[in-house]
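Researcher: Please translate sequence to structure tokens.
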Amino acid sequence: MAKEKENKNKKTGQIKKTVNVGILGFGTVGSGTARILVENKDLLSARLGFPVTLKKIADLDIKKDRGIALGKDVLTTDARQVTDNPDIDIVVELIGGLGVARQLMMRAIKNGKHIVTANKALLAEHGQEIFGAAKKCGVNVGFEASVGGGIPIIKALGEGLIANRINYVYGIVNGTSNYILTKMTNEGVEFSKVLKEAQELGYAEADPTLDVGGADSAHKLAILASLAFGIPLSYESVYTEGITGITPLDISFASELGFKIKLLAIAKAADGQVELRVHPTMLPKDYLISKVDGVMNAIYVNGQETGDTLYYGRGAGDMPTGSAVVSDIAGIAQRIMSGAPPKSGLGAIKMKKSGPPMGLRRMDEVESMYYFRFSALDRPMVLSKISGVLGENNISIASVIQKGRKEGGAVPLVILTHKAMERNVRKALKKIDSLRAVVTGKTCLIRVEGEE
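Model: Translation complete:
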């Protein structure tokens, strides 16, 4: 009797026997989510102990056949039939973007609907507003699908590793960039050629800027870092650099030095501060994450108690991402049927530790190892002059590669450094690049992770 009382509909007083779901957006992920809810309905019902019913799907295009058997009245072009529908308990936002998606999500929250979303950009840039509104209205927000597609990294950080102080999180979280770098590494071809192929295969958007420019990875890192370190969502503070400047020449030199180049999202905690950065990174070839190729994603989390844990899988696609969406739907549905209060949103997470809250480290204070490729003039004393400027700025050389001769012309000169501070590196390269009798063009810089 107690359970029946908890499951009463607040407005009608009737006993709830099912949890109803409405979906906003019937694109790739929306279709995958709908397919799972429809085709796995019996499986979900058996595992949950009650049915989850797909009540409505709103999209501008409801004529296109997605190959899913839906009821006659499920599809609509009117989003308000989802956000304002008194029969719907959970609204799934799969429109994407920051405009309409934000408006509809906030409308649904104000109408007392629980929310599930895969929209990492919206959460990273407006998450504090969204989680604040959800807390005020007493509803849950599920966002497992916002990072890593089918990889359950959000639950791992928020639940599985809750007993740990997290030391660092880093990973490959953008399949498009990883596919491009993998092809460049394996086939020695230029970025532009691989990008065109990725677009033809559907791995890259017509406008790939968010992916190859690093912003997509930065959105995801902001969410992971907030969970891991209890800091506010800080997308605007993530140092972001994409892969458009990576060349087959740099990939070849990296390989000779024992490294592979990956677009890495990095969040590290040290001395009461967190550094947040996304950029091409040279990693030792024998690292597991270096072997993650193609469109796959992988995320390392180092906890004080667990040590390293690795999460690997498909980071995008209709069914992997749809699986993550449905996992959130199932979790929220269980809370609805049990009468449990809403879980704290991402923005409400606080570190349970003594001392002041963690601050953000400026990029110029970050320490790393570095790879430099200079276009050095083939003249006496050039290496001496370059190493002299590096030394003046407390940058120690670990190894040097110089190949070929071109008397009077420019040749590649590669230097790998020991750990140095970003501020000093920028200062040194600015001076070296101004020495027209030493180098031509701008120096290529790639940061290096791993043991010295």
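Researcher: Any highlights?
Model: The domain at 162-314 is CATH 3.30.360.10 (Dihydrodipicolinate Reductase; domain 2).
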